[in-house]
């Protein structure tokens, strides 16, 4: 007979069975709970945190949270992983896209975050992070709508704005059937959140009525009452940056241009708006040029070059971004009227752009490369660009270039080059793939390791780089050689 210890009840320890507790804990799958952090800064402030991609860590990692800064005061912590920005799921997005989203969102951000440990556990358990983020909002909800209403000669705006009884600062929309407001996307019973840049909770009904009577057109942010409750329950503001656009009279356009032998066919000039702000304006568009064929019109304003914001860059730097792009470039542009429209609303036009770009065929790329290239290190006509060596001497501000990488993959490329810096003078181009650093191959190295090699180089640096098209062809040729060696048994 097996002898076991007699069980004695100890009131201080209670009656939990430790073995049962351990089994339950090991079998349990805990669903992580994201947390919402709402950040609001002044125009002169930053959000006071950095976002990074780090080797060995998945996701977009929050770092350098400034003590007592906007982010820390609102619950953002070092090591957090970012899931959403203003209800846009970005965990699987490129890092540059995430940074851009934050930049164009204005002075207010709603960040959905997981702490680092919970994020790693969720990934290890195969958790669907997108579904996890979506679950925070509940079921049966719709995002807010940004609707532009233009006055009609017979029906006016076709809209009545009514105060909601017993709820101060809240207003309901009552559009007339078939009228301008209804056609612009306003539905009966919608709640009004925002009117021409002003939050209506801070306005009286009489003030709103006066605004409506005076205007020939207006832009409103509305949401149905049921969806509004999902925001209220989460204590989350309803922002224009979260909205689906309806009937907006202006939108930016993204255009892809392939360079002809004579260039792109436009001039870029620095001009000032009536409010004394600098803008980069497209002028003298040549007939039948790549610019005209892409749809660029005289006087349109440049907002981005290759999806990089240029509004805060010096004019020469913007011109060099286009030149360094090689034989093709993607421009995001808007009309002057469109820029004025979004400025009056206090919104970035890049929140609502249309992508009308079209990637050129490979044969077109090769032909333009051959026509354009005059550098002695470039390939002959009909061949892709070849690797080239760029030797840099460190200047007072460093080497004058930034590196980029693809999320969670080895390999690095030149993401930015200062035209007058050591990198630009040595011949580095934006988009160049870095193959070697001081003779060491780095094609399979991660960004952090490449940065370490560059720092160890001291004041002199030698980089072997190649344009993206040339690198693709190089990889293809390597694969062919490998296949032939395999076939031959070598």
Give the helices and strands, then pairings.
Blueprint: H1 18-27, E1 35-40, E2 50-52, E3 61-63, H2 70-73, E4 81-85, E5 88-89, H3 95-104, E6 108-114, H4 116-124, H5 129-135, E7 145-150, E8 159-163, E9 171-175, H6 180-183, E10 191-195, E11 198-199, H7 205-214, E12 217-223, H8 225-233, E13 244-246, E14 253-258, E15 267-272, E16 278-283, H9 290-294, E17 301-305, E18 308-309, H10 315-324, E19 328-334, H11 336-345, E20 354-355, H12 362-372, E21 388-393, E22 401-405, E23 412-417, H13 422-426, E24 433-437, E25 440-441, H14 447-456, E26 460-466, H15 468-488
Parallel strand pairs: 7-13, 14-20
Antiparallel strand pairs: 1-6, 2-3, 4-5, 4-6, 7-12, 8-9, 9-10, 10-11, 10-12, 14-19, 15-16, 17-18, 17-19, 21-26, 22-23, 24-25, 24-26
Biggest beta-sheet profile:
7 strands, mixed
Radius of gyration: 28 Å
Global geometry: globular
pLDDT < 50 stretches: 14-27, 358-382, 481-487
**Structural class assignment:** alpha+beta
Number of helices: 15
The strand count comes to 26
Helix content: 25-40%
The proportion of strand residues reads 25-35%
Please report the distance between the alpha carbons of the first and last residues.
69 Å
């Amino acid at each position: 007979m097996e002898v076991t210890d007699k069980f004695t009840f100890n009131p201080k320890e209670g009656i939990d069975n430790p073995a049962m507790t351990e089994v339950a804990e090991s079998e349990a799958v805990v669903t992580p709970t994201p947390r919402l952090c709402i950040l609001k800064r002044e125009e002169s402030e930053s959000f006071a945190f950095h976002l990074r991609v780090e080797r060995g860590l998945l996701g977009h990692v929050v770092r350098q949270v400034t003590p007592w800064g906007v982010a820390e005061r609102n619950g953002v912590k070092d090591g957090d992983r970012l899931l959403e920005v203003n209800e846009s799921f970005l965990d699987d997005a490129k890092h540059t896209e995430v940074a851009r989203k934050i930049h164009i969102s204005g002075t207010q951000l709603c960040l959905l975050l997981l702490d680092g440990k919970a994020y790693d556990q969720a990934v290890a358990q195969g958790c669907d992070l997108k579904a996890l983020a979506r679950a925070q909002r509940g079921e049966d909800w719709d995002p807010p709508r940004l609707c532009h209403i233009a006055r009609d000669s017979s029906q006016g705006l076709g809209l009545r704005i009514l105060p909601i009884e017993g709820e101060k600062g809240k207003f309901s929309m009552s559009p007339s059937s078939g009228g301008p407001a209804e056609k612009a996307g306003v539905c009966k019973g919608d709640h009004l959140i925002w009117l021409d840049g002003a939050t209506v909770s801070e306005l009286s009904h009489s003030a709103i009525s006066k605004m409506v009577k005076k205007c020939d057109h207006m832009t409103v942010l509305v949401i149905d009452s049921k969806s509004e409750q999902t925001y209220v329950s989460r204590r989350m503001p309803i922002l224009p940056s979260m909205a689906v656009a309806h009937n907006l009279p202006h939108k930016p356009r993204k255009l892809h241009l392939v360079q002809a032998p004579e260039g792109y066919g436009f001039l870029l000039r620095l001009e000032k708006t009536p409010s004394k702000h600098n803008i980069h304006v497209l002028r003298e568009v040549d007939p039948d040029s790549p610019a005209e064929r892409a749809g660029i019109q005289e006087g349109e304003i440049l907002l981005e070059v290759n999806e990089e914001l240029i509004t805060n860059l010096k004019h020469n730097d913007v011109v060099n971004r286009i030149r360094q792009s090689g034989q093709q470039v993607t421009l995001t542009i808007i009309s002057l009227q469109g820029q004025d429209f979004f400025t009056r609303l206090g919104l970035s036009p890049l929140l609502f752009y249309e992508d009308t770009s079209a990637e050129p065929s490979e044969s077109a790329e090769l032909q333009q490369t051959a026509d354009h290239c005059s550098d002695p290190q470039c390939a002959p006509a009909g061949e892709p660009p070849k690797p080239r060596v760029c030797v840099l001497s460190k200047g007072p501000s460093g080497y004058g270039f930034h590196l980029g990488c693809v999320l969670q993959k080895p390999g690095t490329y030149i993401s930015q080059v200062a035209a007058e810096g050591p990198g630009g003078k040595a011949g580095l181009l934006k988009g160049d793939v870095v193959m070697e650093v001081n003779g060491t191959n780095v094609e399979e190295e991660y960004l952090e390791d490449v940065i370490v090699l560059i720092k160890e180089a001291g004041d002199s640096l030698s980089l072997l780089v190649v344009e993206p098209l040339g690198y693709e062809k190089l990889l293809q040729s390597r694969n062919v050689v490998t296949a032939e060696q395999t076939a031959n048994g070598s």
